[in-house]
Write a structure and sequence with these properties.
The complex is a heterodimer of chains A (about 110) and B (about 120).
Chain A (H helix, E strand, L loop, with lengths): L8 E5 L4 E6 L8 E7 L6 E6 L4 E2 L4 E4 L5 E6 L8 E8 L11 E6 L1
Parallel strand pairs in A: 1-9
Antiparallel strand pairs in A: 2-7, 3-4, 3-8, 5-6, 6-7, 8-9
Chain B lengths: L3 E4 L2 E4 L5 E7 L6 E7 L6 E7 L5 E2 L8 E7 L2 E6 L8 E8 L12 E3 L3 E5 L1
Parallel strand pairs in B: 2-11
Antiparallel strand pairs in B: 1-3, 3-8, 4-5, 4-9, 5-6, 7-8, 9-10, 9-11
Classes of the chains: A mainly beta (about 110), B mainly beta (about 120).
Chain lengths: ~110, ~120
């Protein structure tokens, strides 16, 4: 079973920031938080990952709470091409990636 | 990021035939590759872990004699669906990582192929 909880769907206006939450209250000390997204009929695409500190790359920012029990993926300026299912995954050593249902983000014009 | 190539992207076959799907890591070596299956409107389900030079590890409920996995080199894993039936119709996706098997963190990001849509008539 997935170790994360995400809202099933969200809408975001084009050009605005999309903030996707993820709850992982049972995360353990050596487990990382990974974010992937899957555009319709394609394989998942890696976005970002983190352990404790906030992370930023060219695609997104990842904000992890101090207690590490939740995180937020931020797409700073959402475009129509960002419409996808976003998966938040918690994984540690010796574990496989387990995909939950994710959040279906719809970016609206 | 690293590139994983999956071929073919779509297969339509008759019931009873076998179908081979290839997964290649193009710019890195992968000691471990993974095979997933995704049914419509559902999430990805791990089928098996493909280990270079050794037998694959199958998840519970996945028939190893039906889904044959071969990982002959550090850049190629194949999944063969033997004697395919309509219930095997699904979206099959492979992934490969740049790190050690089962690790975590920056060295263990999984990169996914584009997927293969199998339709068995």
């Amino acid at each position: 079973d997935a170790k994360t909880t995400q809202p099933p769907s969200m809408d975001c206006a084009e050009g605005r920031a999309a903030n996707l939450p993820c709850n992982h209250s049972t995360i353990s000390g050596n487990e990382y938080v990974y974010w992937y997204r899957q555009i319709h009929s394609q394989g998942p695409q890696y976005i970002i990952h983190g352990l404790k500190n906030n992370e930023t790359n060219e695609m997104a920012s990842l904000i992890i709470t101090e207690d590490r029990k939740s995180s937020t993926l931020i797409l700073p300026h959402a475009t129509l091409r960002d419409t996808a299912v976003y998966y938040c995954i918690v994984k540690g050593n010796g574990q496989n990636f387990v995909f939950g249902p994710g959040t279906r983000l719809s970016v609206l014009p | 990021g690293a590139v994983v190539s999956q071929h073919p992207s779509r297969v339509i076959c008759k019931s009873g035939t076998s179908v081979k799907i290839e997964c290649r890591s193009l710019d890195f070596q992968a000691t471990t590759m993974f095979w997933y299956r995704q049914f419509p409107k559902q999430s990805l389900m791990l089928m098996a872990t493909s280990n270079e030079g050794s037998k694959a590890t199958y998840e519970q409920g996945v028939e190893k004699d039906k889904f044959l996995i071969n990982h002959a080199s550090l850049t190629l894993s194949t999944l063969t669906v033997t004697s395919a039936h309509p219930e095997d119709s699904s979206f099959y996706i492979c992934s490969a990582g740049t790190g050690t098997s089962g690790g975590a963190g920056a060295k263990n990001i999984q990169y996914f192929g584009a997927g293969t849509r199998l339709s068995v008539l």
